[in-house]
Amino acid sequence: MGDVLAGFHAAWEFDSDSVLIRYERGIRTPKLFQVLGERRIPLEAVAGVTLAPGRRGTVVLRIEPRPGADPLMEAAAGQLKDGSDPYRLVLPAERETLAEYYADELRALLTESGPAERHLVSAPGTPLHFKAYDGRASFDGESVSFRWSWTGASSAKWKAGDQTFPVGELCGVEWRSPEVFEGHLRLLHRDEPASSPQADQDPAAVVFGLGYGPVHESLPFAAAVLAAARTTAPVPAVASAAVRRDPADIADRIRHLGELHRAGLVTDEEFSVKKAELLAEL
């Protein structure tokens, strides 16, 4: 086809085997779109195309991705608001006839349906990081790290210490939007137990809220981890070399551990064991 259809906040470029979606960079453009930049959607990842009336004199052209084809939408699990849906193209109502033409052209090219056996749309690139309410999350493409904050992390997370998870040990993610109650990102292990503790007590989860873990930062992160976990073989257990930490950082952590101990949140035994672990990292 080779044509371009421009709407509000995005433009779609139609090729014979894919649709390239380019998102605008502007103050009115949803932040998630700005972070995504552009996305190529192979036609084999598309289940259908719809055209429906929008709000305030607009029409909405939407690609319906196949379940499991896009790690971003799989991680989102239906929690995205319409305004942040990367598969919607909003157009002025007077362009409805043109939009219908492209919808028909796309439908004629579709050959696949049903759930996809693998991700067909590329995940966001790495490295990625964002600040959650109780810590900082980072992902380098091979492992996810959670570094707990002084003010937000629970005593359970401080007792467990900072965490690093090779993607080979993960089978997926659980993302709960910060725009709803109890938003969080939880990493799911291949040997995950039947039930997990609350996110604020789980060292494999970071908590959102109060401006922390916004959708445009935490969702691409979740999608990238999900895609990597699905394509990485399990990592065999091997002895890892000790990692040396900054002495000043260790001192700060021991000081905070002492505060938890004095407040009665850490027992004498837990304080002694964790202090010894921290000193061993020097």
From TrEMBL:
Superkingdom of the organism of origin: Bacteria
Pfam short name (any one): DUF4429
Domain DUF4429, residue spans: 12-106, 137-225
Name of the molecule in the record: DUF4429 domain-containing protein
Residues annotated as domain SHOCT: 252-279
